[in-house]
Amino acid sequence: MIHKTSRLKRYFSASLLAVLVLSTTALSQQVGSAQAPALSSAEKQLVNKLKVETIKEVVGALSSDEMEGRGTAQPGGDKAAAYIADRFQKLGLKPLGERNSFYQPIEFREKQLLPETAIRAGDQTLNLGPDFVVMPPLTGDKSVAGGLVFIAYGLTIANPKRNDLAGIDVNGKVVVLLEGPPKIVSKESWKKVHAQLGVIQNLLKLGAVAIIIVDQPDKEHPYSEMTDYLMRRRVELASDDEYPSFFPPFISISDQGAEKLFAGSGTTFAAARASADQDGFTPIDLKKNASINIRIKKSRGVSNNVVGLMEGSDPKLKDEAVVFSAHYDAFGKATDNRIYHGAADNGLGVGEMLAVGEAMSQLEIKPKRSIIFLAVTGEEYGLYGSTYWVAHPTWRLTQVAADLNLDGMGTEVYAPVKELVGFGAEHSTMGSLLNEVAVANGLKVIPDPMPEEKSFYRSDHYGFVKRGIPALTWMGVPGGDSKVWIERLKQWEKTDYHQPSDVVKPDWNWDGPRMVAVVGLLMGLRIANSEAMPSWLPESVFNRERGTTKPAPPEP
């Protein structure tokens, strides 16, 4: 799941949007009454066919060293796709990819910062990684130079009155600024008016040749975390437009790197930062030139979505389908040969999806609607695989009943699952269905305890939502005090999330993943056998026709 990094990506997207322009509520649904329908005898028999051993086997295989981190457009990703396709075939699924295969190939562009990338300021050399990192977009090799100036937050506002550019011309300059907001502006109002975007937009209009940004000292996601992600190779759809080469460099710099910029200027970076929040701040000419040389290795590659079909049993309804989706990619193999194993994110989701498929494949009479199993690539880089599938669907979108997406943060392995969080449940009738299935299994649906993470927008189901298809992803958690498992999750985010150490742990409780899969199995079965497809709630902002190309509402 692109979960924790989503904030970084939103920030970078804002910076990019500035260049291009140049001119959820928390879940309100609680568990329904205890009168919710119990499992039928047929459903109980089906649940008994769902094997925890299958989930363990799949997760173990996908997170092994042999799979090399399942990187998008890397050999390990190809191995993982082949493994999943083989499992699909053994389940008796029909190919639903291209050319009567399970594969839907997608072309990607890859970009990797080269070690020769460097900044020189006066007699100081700043090193890629420890001192600075290049933010998106990467357009290609680039060299710029100009005088260095420090402009605090770059603000030019009337209320409260402030002009960080007073008496200075930034045309042709390399500007150094602090990430906002300043102390005189609240974080809420800063975000509400997209102030950082406005600052960058103004600097570009005024002719700055490069922008160097220093993070807030108390930033939740510090410079070291950004560096870890931005030093990795970057992947994007080859079909997307390339960014124009005239884009100036956007640089994130560490405090250590900033001190090098200020060396010999007559002041220190620490003193300059302190002055930035004082009344009457005036820009500081650092009395030296800076040269920025960015060197990038570019390549192209192909990665595959893997798509299988279980044909429905009803002569009419089999033309409609329920989609189960799960991304199989992780961050692959790094240039230093570290492997990002991706056991929890998202080996678990793929294992759960395959366990659902295995159970359904043993039904004597298949569900009335068809079932599509969609293992997507490129999720970690921007939901690319699912975005591609809904743009180039191998099934008519107007006849996709719903998407049930299996992706998460591995909270289901902490203990037996007792509670569920349904991301998107407040938008469609699938919320009521989730409640029914939960109650029938002795579970409780709870509101999202971390709404600030906006997880509804951060996984592959959202591509379906944008095309008018009701979709849901759900997270299984232990019961009791949510603070306990949230604390464990936060610690895991610090140590293992999107890191090589995301491996199968000895203390994992496998009953949890099985319950997450059971919930999906039952929801999928009930949707597939219902007379009507799930529908949007009238008040939902996503209440639109299936297959729509109308732009989705902006993310909050």
Short description:
This protein is α/β, with parallel strands linked by helices and 556 residues long.
Radius of gyration: 25 Å
Based on the coordinates given, report the CATH architecture of the largest domain. Answer: 3-Layer(aba) Sandwich
The share of residues in helices is: 25-40%
CATH topology of the largest domain: Aminopeptidase
| Percent range for β-strand residues | 15-25%
CATH superfamily of the largest domain: Zn peptidases
For the largest beta-sheet, the strand count, sense and barrel status come to: 10 strands, mixed
What is the CATH class of the largest domain? Alpha Beta
Quaternary state of this entry equals: single chain
Q: Number of helical segments?
A: 15
> Ends: how far apart?
19 Å
The chain-level structural class is: alpha/beta
Query: If you average the pLDDT, what whole number results?
Result: 92
Number of strands: 22
Assign an overall shape. elongated
Q: Stretches where pLDDT falls below 50 for ≥5 residues? A: 3-34
How many discrete domains?
2
Write structural notes for this entry.
This protein has 556 residues and is of the alpha/beta class. It is built from 15 helices and 22 strands. The strands form four sheets. Strands 1, 2, 11, 14, 15, 18, 19, 20, 21 and 22 form a ten-stranded mixed beta sheet that branches. β20, α12 (430-440) and β21 (444-445) form a beta-alpha-beta unit. α3 (52-62) crosses α10 (343-361), α10 (343-361) packs across α15 and α12 crosses α15. It is elongated and about 80 Å long.
